[in-house]
Write a structure and sequence with these properties.
The chain is globular and about 55 Å long. Helix 3 packs parallel to helix 4 and helix 5 runs parallel beside helix 9. Strand 4, helix 3 and strand 5 form a beta-alpha-beta unit. With about 300 residues, it is α/β, with parallel strands linked by helices. The longest helix has 21 residues. It has 9 helices and 9 strands. The protein has a single domain, classed as Rossmann fold (3-Layer(aba) Sandwich), CATH 3.40.50.720. The C terminus is likely disordered. The strands form 2 sheets. Strands 3-2-1-4-5-7-8 form a 7-stranded parallel β-sheet, with helices on one face. Belongs to the 3-beta-HSD family. Pfam families: 3Beta_HSD (PF01073). This is 3Beta_HSD domain-containing protein. InterPro entries: 3Beta_OHSteriod_DH/Estase, NAD(P)-bd_dom_sf.
Length: about 300
């Protein structure tokens, strides 16, 4: 079987490649990404000899016509707008084009070249709008378009709808809504169609998560706290300055703030039942304790 991973050159792609190789799931593997960084994830066992890296974009129609013949499964991991310069309002149209139109055109090409399966990396951003939610399931209705916190969330929801509506018996699609993607050496923080929430399965507080990381870095948790209103004002100001004036990511985005201070849990019952998904318990603690980061390295919290 031949697989194509679109946007597979980073952290998520590296872990996907390692898992596919471990299970001997393919005969040929192609990675379409302008940046190929798999070799930097030294903790993973990746054999690059049977991987073909294609330096290009999935927005290139002619390139897709060259790659897709013979491909059985496509993993679509690529999106923009969550962080970086594309979070600025002036890039709204391009983020829409990249995340939504690009996904739609990729699906069209997959159908033309008889791809059988399409797996889309979605996000809990499609259902979280800064309001408390508890055990949100795949069958629950998504929020209205005007309630989304940023263009990334809005376009991920639009793209997910396209993926879900494109599924047939000949071309099966699956959407995986990731809650958070993390791990060692991460530098970021039988139906026709199926959608699954993918989380660790544990309901934990934010301090449980961040304290584990802080201690792993050899630091102490902060003792001073500030009000939500003050931080919210800071986020608004820094968001404008960083995104609109300097074209870079702010220290904290509006979405990141709201997801930090708002209860939000997601049901994984469907993924467990239909995919056999069995998350590792207390996985964040294991990942931070097992990290090869030096404890005297400066953290994101302390200088």
């Amino acid at each position: 079987m031949a697989y194509l991973i679109v946007g597979g050159g980073g952290f998520l792609g590296a872990n996907l490649v390692a898992a596919l190789q471990e299970n001997n799931d393919f005969t040929k593997l192609f990675i379409l990404d302008p940046c190929f960084k798999l070799s930097q994830y030294t903790h993973l066992k990746i054999n690059e000899s049977n991987i073909t890296w294609i330096n290009g974009s999935f927005l290139d129609s002619d390139l897709l016509d060259e790659i897709l013949p013979g491909i059985e499964t496509v993993f679509h991991l690529s999106s923009i707008g969550h962080t970086g310069r594309f979070g600025a309002s002036k890039h709204r149209d391009y983020v829409q084009f990249f995340n939504v139109t690009g996904t739609e055109r990729l699906i069209e090409k997959c159908r033309i070249h008889h791809v059988k399966r399409f797996i889309y990396a979605s996000s809990i951003a499609v259902c979280f709008v800064g309001k408390p939610i508890y055990d949100f399931s795949e069958s629950d209705t998504l929020p209205p378009k005007e309630e989304y916190l940023d263009i990334y969330s809005e376009t991920k929801a639009d793209a997910e709808k396209i993926v879900r509506n494109s599924s047939t018996f000949e071309f099966r699609t699956t959407c995986l809504r990731f809650r958070a993607i993390y791990g060692p050496q991460d530098v970021c923080v039988a139906q026709k169609v199926v959608v699954y929430n993918i989380t660790d399965g544990l309901k934990i507080g934010q301090y449980t998560v961040w304290n584990a990381l802080i201690f792993a870095l050899g630091k102490s948790p902060p003792k001073l706290f500030v009000s939500y209103d003050l931080v919210s004002f800071f986020v608004s100001v820094m968001g404008f300055i960083c995104f609109e004036l300097f074209g870079c990511s702010p220290p904290l985005t509006r979405f990141e703030l709201e997801v930090l201070v708002t209860d939000n849990t997601y049901s994984i019952e469907k993924a467990q039942k239909e995919l056999g998904f069995n998350p590792e318990k207390d996985n964040f603690k294991q990942k931070t304790n097992g990290s090869d980061e030096k404890q005297n390295r400066k953290s994101v919290f302390y200088s």
